[in-house]
Amino acid sequence: MALKVENLTVYYQTLRGDVRALEHASFQLADGEIMGLAGESGCGKTTLGHSLIVLFPPMKYISGRVEVDGEEIPIWDAEGMNTHRFRKISLIPQYAMNAMNPIRKIGVMIRELLESRGVHYKDILPELKRRLDLVALPHEVLKMYPIELSGGMKQRMVMVISSLLNPSLLIADEITSALDVATQKAVAEMLVEFRDREFVKNLIVITHDISILYQIADSILIMYAGVLAEKAPTRSIIESPRHPYTRLLISALPEVGVRFAEKRLQGIPGNPPLLLNPPTGCRFRERCPLAYERCLEEPPFIEVERDHFVACWKEYENHAQAG
Amino acid sequence: MLRLDKVSKIYRVGAFGGRALLAVNKVSFEVHKGQVVSLIGESGSGKSTIGKMILRLLNASEGKIFYNGEDIAGFEGEALKNYYRQVQGVFQDPFSSYNPIFKADRIFKVVHEEFFPQVSDAEWGERVEKALSSVGLNPAHVLNKYPHQLSGGQLQRFLIARALLLNISFLVADEIISMLDASTRIDVLNLLADLKAYGLSILFITHDLSLAYYISERAVILYKGNIVEQGAVEKIFNTPLHPYTRMLMESVPRLDRKWEKEITLVERDVENLRRGCPYYHRCPVAEKRCAVDQPPLVEVDEDHWVACVHYESGADLVKPLSLAGQDTRTVV
Amino acid sequence: MKKRSEVLYFTLRNKKLLIGSGIILFFLILALIGPTFTKYKPLEYASPRGAEPPSTHFWMGTTFFGQDVFSQFVNGLRATFVVGLLGGGLGTLVGMLIGFTAGYRGGIVDEILNAFTNIVLVIPTLAVLLIIAAYLQVRSLLMECLFIGLTAWPWVARAIRAQTFSLRTREFVDLAKLSGMKPLRIIRDEIAPNMMSYLVLVFILQFGGAILTAATLDFIGLGPTNTISLGLMMQYAVLWGALPFGMWWWFVPPGLAITAIVGALYSMNVGLDEIFNPKLREI
Amino acid sequence: MRRYLIRKMVIYALTFFLAVTIDWLIPRFMPGDPIRNMLTRVSVASNATAIQMMYDYYARLFGLDLPLWQQYLNFWKALFQGDLGISTYLFPTPVVDVLKRAVPYDVFLLVPAVLLGWYTGNKFGAFAARSKRLDNFVLPISYILTATPYMWLGILMAWFFGIVIGIFPIAGAYSFSLRPTWSVTFLLDLLHHWFLPFASLFIIEFGGWAIGMRNMIIYELEAEYSRYLNALGAPKSLVRKYAFDNAILPQITGLALKLGVIVAGALVTEVVFSYPGIGYLLLAAIQNQDYFLIQGCFLFIVLGVLIANFVIDLVYLVVDPRTRRGMVGESA
């Protein structure tokens, strides 16, 4: 089992108290699985992704275990995690456009970074050059400064750097949102190729754009207001979602081919709850058309079908009767 | 209603205006009464610049913009104010459209002071509440609150309510829903579509093809400040002709179709782009002449225009150029 | 918590701001009521025995010529605050004017004003002041404030130009234009209020800067010819051998006052900056 | 990169031109006849003929009888020939020679104080930002230091080290009994006199730069490239090194901009220690109404600052790659 997360809870310290950004998240990734992590802004997907590698203040670790390739990693220990960072777990940040030191040649930065982690630059150089070819970047880019590269080139450069030590888990945080469509597609497909060539064993792709995940992810985890709503293989999330929130979310996405005149799509009324003191029970309760008295109690995140997990009492009961 | 005639915008960049940057290049299109036209282009295509020129926030370097037949460049003082009584804009970032130190509903007070001083406060209060409920907001929940206490969706609806108060006839919506979440985005879009029923014509500026298809009747596709294709939305989306439009259609991630595997990314470095077709440096089917002269916009089908050498002859329905199988992957 | 009360909440708790404003208040009161307690005029030869250490009669002792140091000190303080207020104020005003116009207008106007600002910035302002002051026989305190104000504005202009530029591109300014507001009203109602907190910070720095420049000018002997000032006190002290004779009460208080006032101003500035921009609050 | 240099040269040339013009303008627009004012105060000789002779001499020197523009040209011509007139205070030595004797002391005092103060201040500022305890200790002291008027610190140090402990001389550049020769004793004595003025200037500079760096490095440590290094498990030392290298750049341009203030500080420090640099000379010139010497000092100061600025710009060019390639760094 490549990645195992149990009951992960992380809060955000703010001036007005702790925002309960992520609560008792539990899920697993099989070897080679690319998991899409989606949800609306403020649902906690970034908190989940970052807590696996960069759990720095103002994020506060509360509870939970994380295992990568069977070995528990101390995500609460910012210093201790250094040994795992970059080698076992790596991150392609959202701010990839200016993630590289502006006043260092890119090659020099990579060398200094690698040597600071005890890796000799000349051993890695041939592999680095091969990967530059793979992402269509000229080798001269190593002698250039970040400012001389276009947005798309910088994005791909950071992808190569982050995955250079073949980490077991690579987390990509909203890496396609700032790109034009053509480069977006190229970058997304390169991610898949990194997995196929086993540069990385697993990928977590954090994005709000579900249609990108449909193209490249094996499974999708939907989050709502700090808790896991549903995790399932991509096809079943899109075509047969079980959680009411996922169903409404998918139906609210305008697809090319849907015209206002013919079919008036429906949004989800109301707003997600503030997580300073979230509501008890199921957090989608106020906006959910199927809400009933049992929703006052927090629904468990259970496997109703092979690899199909959902946190909703309605589904729980259907599963219990069928089971 | 609104017509752009060869409108261009040239920016002076570099020290003491050394270099000239062509942001918009001889753009012409029309928006008729009660029609929704979407202006589609990626960042840097000049779509927002066009929006700002229509709203007179920027002056056109060349060409003219006509509103009901009058050249808007000539409007000054009262005439400009009158123009703003009929043409308004809503912008992309809801939180940047509000002055943070005032309450959100101050925008109504400003409209009251500037455009309807003669209307009494009580009467104005009623109009505001009517406008707010017609955009799906409960006045009690949203009035006298600071912008940071309202959600993005609510703030955008505020701006639409403001436009309703002026009962404008033309709205420039510049990426108004790109900052909103999927669930609230659709409701704001439906709201815009409902306004059409009041006879409101809308220029919907966006980079998202599916949104444009959902709401507009005609589409104008921009690339680096030039119109590459325009026409009826079904035609453009079902039979895209220009290589750029086709690339857009193929690259946009969809929920019903997987991407074709091949990556047709081409990159020719072109010294100065002034001459020739703007898409030459990335076009997989470009020819020598494409680098020399810029192809004009030609009507190849009823209300379906394209600017590409491959459709020069203006023959009737030309077989759409097949791009599949062009796996030319060079430097990007 | 509404935004307005949140700022108030932190203002009252910010140590740096409280200490700073406390010190300023102390010296301000001393400057205002001090002169009423003095027994002698600042330059009056009060003690026949010349230099005397501080005593019950002469709280701060006397100078080489027997002048009452305390009287010189409080009157000097008054001059310092006037220079700070007027000189700093003028510098901020001129800077605001140029900064706003350059930031809001943009284009060629911005290019010219910016080049001019950079030029005045590079010229060592003190050298220019020296020349002007040297030629003017009669120099009043107001003239000194004028000189300081007219040479201190580049820093302000640069800061405000950048701020106006960032605010100008914000969409609420476009919306104001669409609402038919005139440019002047836009600057007054939309841009300026947003920068109020920033203007306060800039003024505080200008206030301190004016005091330091004035002290330097006075020390070289180019200060006002008709009034006493802390810088002048220090110059007399050095010229008339206060050091070899160990007359510390003559040169320590003026310098200490200036350092305390300017230091307190910087402390207020940091405190206010922390309130308005929480990132600097803790490392 | 070339454009960056040209822009700088243009600004410095303009600045020098403006400074010289001010220098030429001031005496001519001051109330009353400058030469009459000068002579009455200098009261060189009692009888009329001597005064008249002096008056004619200076009238010819000032060239008041010539038309204005010709005076201006003569002024520039004289400037380039290095003829800045005759000093009345140290009659008849030309101003240029007087200044030539003073400049070495200035350079000897200023350059080490400024550079060392800048370097150690920045290093210490970066070090202080490392831990909260250090920061709470260093910050207040640095703020007090920068608030201290240059001359007051000079006075205190002269009084404490010079008088109370008496281990340092507090006047002149070397003891009067010695003649300037290259002997070790003379050099030691020179350093002995040099130390206090150097120390007082150094300490104030140190405080200023420490604060500047402390604030800058906090921002840089939260910059995105720092967060990325942390995400890749880079050791604290590497992150701090990069943050320092980026934070030092604005400090370089800051040094260029602050030169004017630093020079002023040096002037007064020289006055306190009667250290024979331009500052001390200037005080004497002012007290003796020697206008030519004043103007000479002014030009030397301005020239010095401009040259220093240009040198710093060149250094900035070498250190910040962004100005060499791509974007034109226009911070100064």
Identify low-pLDDT runs of chain D. Answer: 327-332
How would the global form of chain D be characterised?
Answer: globular
- Could you say what the CATH topology of the largest domain in chain B is called? Rossmann fold
| Helix-strand makeup class of chain D | mainly alpha
Q: Which percent range describes the beta-strand content of chain B?
A: 15-25%
Mean pLDDT of chain D: 81
Q: Please report the number of helical segments of chain D.
A: 13
CATH architecture identity of chain D: Orthogonal Bundle
Through-space gap between termini of chain D: 14 Å
Give me the strand/helix succession of chain B: EEEHEEHEHHHHEHEHEEHHEE
First-residue to last-residue Cα separation of chain B: 42 Å
* CATH architectural arrangement of the largest domain in chain B: 3-Layer(aba) Sandwich
Tell me about the largest β-sheet of chain D: none
Quaternary structure classification:
heterotetramer
The share of residues in extended strands of chain D comes to under 5%
Please give the share of residues in helix of chain B.
Answer: 25-40%
Question: Globular, elongated, flat, extended or rod-shaped: what is the shape of chain B?
Answer: globular
Could you walk me through the main structural features you see in this protein, from its secondary elements to its overall organization?
The complex is a heterotetramer of chains A (323), B (332), C (283) and D (332). By secondary structure, chain A is an alpha/beta fold. Chain A has helices at 45-51, 106-116, 121-134, 151-162, 181-196, 210-216, 234-239, 244-251, 313-322, and strands spanning 3-14, 17-29, 34-38, 59-68, 71-72, 89-92, 169-173, 202-206, 219-224, 227-233, 302-305, 308-310. Chain A is globular. Residues 314-318 and 323-332 of chain B have low confidence and may be disordered. In chain B, strand 4 (62-67) and strand 5 (70-71) form a beta hairpin. Chain B is globular. Chain B is α/β, with parallel strands linked by helices and 332 residues long. Chain B has 10 helices and 12 strands. Chain C has a single domain, classed as Orthogonal Bundle (MetI-like fold). Chain C has helices at residues 3-13, 15-37, 69-105, 107-122, 125-135, 141-168, 171-178, 183-194, 196-220, 230-239, 248-276. In chain C, helix 3 packs across helix 10. Chain D has one domain: Orthogonal Bundle (MetI-like fold), CATH 1.10.3720.10. Chain D is globular. Chains in contact: A-B, A-D, B-C, B-D, C-D. At the C-D interface, helix 4, helix 5, helix 9, helix 10 and helix 11 of C face helix 1, helix 6, helix 7, helix 8 and helix 10 of D. Chain B: InterPro entries: AAA+_ATPase, ABC_transporter-like_ATP-bd, ABC_transporter-like_CS, Oligopep_ABC_C, P-loop_NTPase. Chain B: GO terms for molecular function: ATP binding; ATP hydrolysis activity. Chain B: Keywords: ATP-binding, Nucleotide-binding, Transport. Chain B: Residues 2-249 form the ABC transporter domain. Chain B: Pfam families: ABC_tran (PF00005), oligo_HPY (PF08352).
